Amino acid sequence: MKRPTKILKLFTFLLLVSSCSNKEQILEFENILGKENSVTLTSMVSEFENGFLKTKYPKLSTEKAYSEYLTELESNITGNWERPTKKNIDKFNQSELKKVIYGLPDSIWVEKTENKNRTDYRIRQKYLTVKGEYKIGTLEASIPKVSDEDSLTATLENHYDINYIGKYREALKTISKEDKFIKKYLQMTNEAGMLDPRMVAYEMLIADLDFDDYFVKRLIVTEIVYRL
User: Is the pTM of this model over 0.90?
Assistant: First the structure.
């Protein structure tokens, strides 16, 4: 009769340890990310859950709604999936968090080339470091000839890069010590750069993640939902 009681006590102890560990990870993550950025990110998660998910999947729990959202996204061949509202996108665009997560285009120009079948362009991008300073990088690319260079430039204005030296990336690194999926995500993006949101969705689904997890939710919002 005493054995079940001991098992129950052990189970309760493990839950408490897990809970405390998660709280410590959250505190460490938010400390690196910064108070303002953490508040912005939490607000984005809340708006996505209480707005988009509840509207689209009213009969599902939040956890199951996340899973269904990723399932539909992963199988979306066209790439034309629903975006956050303009109001929420504008709020994100005006926040510091966007600069922390992404390397952003600072200037774009088309280079003259002797090859009449190609268009060469350059993107000067700025990256906000953990110290609050900007580092500059330049992307060089050559693509099949385009007739409308102004349209190309307008499109490239939304060409974001991963901010490898920003607070968000640094915060994720601290969590990767204990979180296998985040560790895998960091490795994949180190090797391949920005990933197609459908690939991220696929990797999350096959990993059988807990969609009620603090960090999983934030990765979904930053790497999929707000990937403009």
Answer: no
